[in-house]
Write a structure and sequence with these properties.
By secondary structure, this protein is mainly alpha-helical. Helix content is 81%, strand content 1%.
Length: 450
């Protein structure tokens, strides 16, 4: 009764707000309506608001857990953006370095978000209960994450170099790209490997759903550690040119050893993870490399407008997080049989609504906090109104696109007997990167900033 009274008062308040002087406007339902009802605009708005309030209450655990993760994610994205905005001179001094940035942070997020998603599914299914080196699932996930980090850090340098040559852009040498990509990848990868296990097990012990929090926090930390690691490796390359060749030789030897180990892995579980993950990680790197090329081609404008560099990591990160959380939750539902692998939104309706609600809060918050952070540290170039318009419009486009991708890839991968934990997150995050950069640059161009 108490809750019913509150709902009635809320309905009356909404009616007073939206229906001036209690006036109602009759709307005749079409003849096909079996009830033949007449409804009022006031009742319709109140009913919709009531349904919205009930939906939020019903999913309060999701919003509470996701809000904590996204708050950490936004702050970490700002930290990464501050590094990127402050070191635009290094990006100009090392042409081609910025091509590595979206691909490196995307790859790191892809590898370890997928690890977090697999751990979340294993915890839900009960195949993993505590961290133990004797558990073959734990060992296989650690081993596969290390091998993927080594192999794809080196491949990223080759892909970046090929893309740069294809577009006729002069850049630093291939060996320098190899050293920067590998060193930056290994430093951040070691940190993220430990962090992912801590987040998954700690959240599950607290009764939280790892699917709600692991992806945003992991991708945020991926940005926060990967960008400084890349810049540190770039500084090493600039300062110690004579060490680049021997370092590259050692790195290529480690790469060859990992490839050889994979060739002899047979049907081991870690090898299945690597094999299923590799095609989508490779495709994701290609998308991210082209996203980096877009940034490289706009480097002149970006250097004059560093607030956009400050914005990029957090904006892209949240776009990927939106899709990754949706995909992780859909993956767990599919594993548990709580959702049919059909291309129908019926089983995913609540998840999609939740994601839109989060997006409506996240992107305006990113725009406001980015502008405030840039103003505080002297990184600017655009007014608050321009930044907010660009972020909100681009955010709507990005959120809609990544949700559609997350839904269809999750269902398709499950129907083809592929583990969605290995396939969906890398494709979603990489798609979010290129869609986010294209939409953001396009909106800034339309607004006349570039």
């Amino acid at each position: 009764m108490k809750h019913a009274g509150k709902r009635d008062r809320a309905r009356r308040l909404l009616k007073r707000i939206f229906v001036s002087e209690e006036r109602t406007y009759e709307y005749h339902m079409p003849a096909s309506d079996p009830m033949g009802r007449n409804i009022t605009v006031g009742d319709s708005i109140a009913d919709s608001a009531g349904r919205f309030i009930r939906h939020v209450k019903r999913n309060s655990d999701f919003f509470r857990q996701a809000s904590v993760a996204y708050a950490i994610s936004i702050l970490a994205g700002l930290f990464a953006g501050i590094f990127l905005g402050h070191y635009e001179e290094m990006l100009l001094a090392l042409p081609g370095l910025i091509v590595l940035v979206p691909a490196a942070i995307g790859m790191r997020g892809n590898i370890f978000s997928s690890l977090g998603s697999r751990l979340g599914s294993a915890l839900h299914l009960g195949t993993v209960k505590t961290f133990s080196k004797d558990n073959h699932i734990i060992r296989s996930n650690i081993y596969s994450s290390i091998i993927l980090s080594v192999i794809f850090s080196v491949l990223l340098a080759f892909i970046a170099r090929i893309v740069l040559l294809a577009f006729g852009i002069k850049s630093i040498t291939l060996l320098s790209l190899v050293v920067i990509s590998f060193v930056g990848g290994i430093i951040s990868g070691i940190i993220l490997l430990a962090t992912t296990f801590v987040i998954a097990f700690a959240s599950f012990r607290r009764g939280w759903n790892p699917d709600n929090i692991s992806s945003p926090i992991i991708t945020a930390l991926g940005d926060m550690f990967t960008i400084p690691s890349l810049l540190l490796a770039a500084f090493f390359t600039l300062s110690y040119q004579e060490l680049v060749l021997p370092a590259a030789v050692i790195i290529l030897a480690v790469f060859a050893a990992c490839v050889f180990r994979m060739a002899r892995a047979g049907k081991e579980y870690f090898a299945d993870i690597v094999r299923q993950s590799s095609p989508v990680l490779f495709g994701g790197m290609l998308l991210d490399a082209f996203a980096g090329m877009i940034l490289q081609s706009n480097m002149g404008s970006l250097s004059m407008l560093p607030v956009v560099l400050l914005l990029i990591p957090g904006f892209l990160e949240q776009g990927g997080n939106i899709g990754n959380i949706l995909a992780s939750r859909l993956s767990t539902k599919l594993h548990l049989g709580a959702m049919e692998p059909k291309f129908s939104v019926e089983g995913a309706r609540d998840e999609i609504i939740n994601t839109y609600i989060l997006s409506a809060v996240l992107f305006p918050a990113i725009g406001l906090l980015t502008f405030a952070a840039g103003y505080a540290i002297g990184i600017g170039g655009a007014g608050l109104d321009v930044v907010m318009k660009a972020v909100i419009i681009s955010g709507i486009l990005l959120a809609t696109a990544v949700m559609a991708i997350a839904f269809f890839i999750s269902i398709a991968s499950f129907r083809f007997n592929l583990d969605p934990d290995n396939t969906t997150l890398p494709l979603i995050a990489s798609s979010a990167d290129i869609i986010g950069i294209v939409s953001l640059m396009a909106v800034f161009h339309v607004l006349g900033v570039f």
